[in-house]
Amino acid sequence: MQKIKIAIVFHSGYGHTRKAAELIAERFRAADAEVHLVDSDAADKAWGTLHTCDTIIFGCPTYFGTVSAGFKTFMERTGGFWYRQLWKDKFAAAFTVSSTLGGDKQNTLQTIAVFAAQHSMHWINLGVLPRFCADEQTDGQNRLASYQGLMIQSDNTQTEVREFHPGDLLTLELFADRILQVNFKNIIKQSENEQTIN
C-alpha cells in the first residue's frame, strides 16, 4: 500500500506546541507514515517537501485569541505560490495550544481553516465527541469540546514543558488516528478508481 506522507508545520513560542507536534508525529510514525516536522520559521527550506505531502497539519499557540505572529508570517509567505494552488486537494487539519481552557482557541482554528480553504485544501475536523457519564461531561476525550480541530490546554510556565492533561493527550491520539484513517480511505478510493479505469 502507498505510504502516507504527512507534514506538520508548527510555530511554538515556549515549546508546548512543538511538544504537541512531536507527539502527533510519533503517532503517525507508529502507523508507518512518512512524517516531516517543519518549524514555521524555517518553512522556506521545506516548500518542496510540503508541496509533495498528502496532508499538511498546522499548529500554533493561541495568543490574544488568534494565531501567533510567527505562524501568521508563515501563512503570508505562502502567498508566493498561492496563486498556483500547489496545495489544492491536499488534506489539512490544525491544532492549537493555550494555557487556559478557552482562550478563544476556536478563533485560531477558524483562522487556519480559512487559510487552508484559500489554498483549496480539504479540511479534516476533530471527529471526536466529548464523553458524558451520569449526564456530566467527563475530563477525558475532547474535554474542551472542540470540533473544528484539536485544542490543548498547557500550563503557563515559560521555563519548561510539562505533560499535557491526560484527556488532551487522549484527544491528540484520536485526532492523529482520524487523520490516518482519512488518508487510508483516500488511498483505497484512489486504488479502486484506478482499477475501474483500467
UniProtKB/TrEMBL annotation:
InterPro entries: Flavodoxin/NO_synth (IPR008254), Flavodoxin_CS (IPR001226), Flavoprotein-like_sf (IPR029039), FMN_Rdtase-like_dom (IPR005025). PROSITE patterns: FLAVODOXIN, FLAVODOXIN_LIKE. SUPFAM superfamilies: Flavoproteins (SSF52218). It comes from the Bacteria. Residues 6-169 form the Flavodoxin-like domain. GO terms for cellular component: membrane. Its cofactor is FMN. One of its GO terms (molecular function) is FMN binding. This is Flavodoxin family protein. It comes from Mucilaginibacter terrigena. The lineage of its organism: Bacteria, Pseudomonadati, Bacteroidota, Sphingobacteriia, Sphingobacteriales.
